[in-house]
Amino acid sequence: MSQSASFSSDHIPDISGFYPEKWTIKFVNEGAANLVFEVRLPPSPPSTTESHANGHSDIFQGHLLRVPKAGAKTFPYPELLQYWDSTITPLFPPENLVQHQLVKLGQSPSKVITILDELLAKAESGRRKDFRDTRVLPDAQYGMLIEDMRSQNPSDYFVEFKPKWLSPSPSQRTRCRNCAREAYRDHLDPSHHKAHRLGILCPLDFIACRSNRGSLENVLKHIVPASASPSHRNHLADWLRTNSLLPLLQQAQAKHDPSQGVNLELAMTLRDCSLFLRISTPQDGTGQPARIEAKLADLDKKNAAKKKKHWEELERDLVEGGFYEGKEQPREETDCLLERAAN
Ligand SMILES: Nc1ncnc2c1ncn2[C@@H]1O[C@H](COP(=O)(O)OP(=O)(O)OP(=O)(O)O)[C@@H](O)[C@H]1O
Ligand SMILES: [Mg+2]
Ligand SMILES: [Zn+2]
């Protein structure tokens, strides 16, 4: 991230020094392990404040604040960032990765955390039901500033999705890993499928849509909300047909296959990341083509030691239950590209 000199790896800003009680904060979104906020500093801080004097006053500009959730049992952020630098960065071009930077949340009890928790309590009704009542990890020492990938202008368009498992399973299987797992979920809980009005997208369609019209329509149906303009839809279709990022992610996944038991951590991380797409249409009337930024995020190090047993048991259940071949009883319906191709 190119900020001021104070914004480098050898100096981690302590954002509690920026008077969090004066911030305007918005809850943006959350996942199972992290919370994301938009922070705006007061427009003109008194010139005597430390933040102003240090030239820190705009580090939130263009960035969001990501903090760990209580109870999520993930690695501390410095470890996530280290993993990112050593293991993720070499795999993808920098323009395809959401940039981030550590920040200190201040001495415990952190004022920043108290304020974020107060906001979460107020935002409760807008949160996903199963996430309500969760708060920031109380003794978290670090947060991250992440590049804000949301729309910057009213005519921009932002889409996010998880590409999941992009390679077909070994031969003779008629379902990909993702669809086999979805079938298993439906099998355990019949209400699971019903919760997905459009069915569940087969991730193999992400790669197939380069040459297959049906796959392209399928992906668009799932990732483009009805509110998108025809022009946004066309730009997304072009990107899906021609991008090099999804094939690159597919290659990285193939190279790090969980069934080989080597680097299970990275294998799982590469199958659980998010992809953010932002389409911006120039507003200067120059007729410049729209720009699409495509960046991977949520490439957090997984706790393989803790999850290994669960992953192995799940794989065994999928194989033994016949979910890779659609032989489970009763048979669950999926929309796997492999099943479509076989019919
Ligand atoms: N850089 C970003 N720009 C815009 N929105 C973002 C950004 N990072 C995260 N978000 C929003 O916040 C949500 C949660 O973020 P994140 O993926 O970091 O949480 P998580 O707990 O790791 O999720 P998961 O449960 O999928 O692992 C995202 O789905 C997205 O909507
Ligand atoms: Mg995550
Ligand atoms: Zn599938």
Fold and architecture overview:
With 343 residues, the chain is an alpha+beta fold. It folds into two domains: 133 residues, 2-Layer Sandwich (Phosphorylase Kinase, domain 1), CATH 3.30.200; 186 residues, no CATH class. Helix content is 33%, strand content 15%. A five-stranded antiparallel beta sheet has the order 1-2-3-5-4, with helices on both faces. Strands 6-7-8 form a three-stranded antiparallel beta sheet, with helices on one face. The N terminus is likely disordered. Bound molecules: adenosine-5'-triphosphate, magnesium ion (MG) and zinc ion (ZN). Adenosine-5'-triphosphate binds next to strand 1, strand 2, strand 3, strand 5 and strand 7.
Radius of gyration: 22 Å
Q: List the total number of helices.
A: 12
Enumerate the strands of the largest sheet in spatial order, edge to edge or round the barrel. 1-2-3-5-4
Bound small molecules, which ones? adenosine-5'-triphosphate, magnesium ion, zinc ion
Q: Mean pLDDT, nearest integer?
A: 89
Portion in helices: 25-40%
Q: Uncertain segments of ≥5 residues (pLDDT<50)?
A: 1-9, 51-55
Largest sheet: 5 strands, antiparallel
Shape, per Cα inertia axes: globular
What is the tally of beta strands?
A: 8
Give me some keywords for this one.
binds zinc ion; Phosphorylase Kinase, domain 1; five-stranded antiparallel sheet; kinase; 2 domains; alpha+beta; disordered N terminus; 8 strands; 343 residues; binds adenosine-5'-triphosphate; binds magnesium ion; three-stranded antiparallel sheet
